[in-house]
Amino acid sequence: MIGTETLADTKPARWRVLLNLLLAAAVIAAFLPALDVFIAGDDFEWLDTSYDIVGDPLSSLGLINHFFRPLVKWTYLGDYLIFGQAGVGYVATNLLIHFLNSLLLYMLLERQPLHPVVAAAAAAAFALSPLHSEAVLWAAGRPDTVLLACWLGALLLLDNWFEGSSAWRAATFTGVALLGIGAKESWIVFPFLVVAYLALALGLPLWIAVRRMAVLWIAWVVYIVVFLVIPLVTGAQSATHYADFRILPALVKTSATLLGFCGLGWIPIEGWAVVSLSTLIVVGTTGWLIRTHNGFGLWALLWLVVTLALVAPFQMAVLRHNYLPLAGFWLLVAAVLDHILTGVLSHAAGRRFQWLKLGLATSAIALLAIEGWALQREIADYRFYGDFHRRLCESYAEIEPEIPREQLLAFVDRGTVRGVEVVIDAVQGCDKTFFVRRDAVWQLVFLPPLANFMGRPFDERLEQVETEGGGVVPDAFTVLLFEDTGFSLRPDLKDAVEKAIDAAGGAPHGISLYRFSAR
Question: What residue spans define the domains of the chain?
Answer without folding.
Answer: 8-383, 397-518
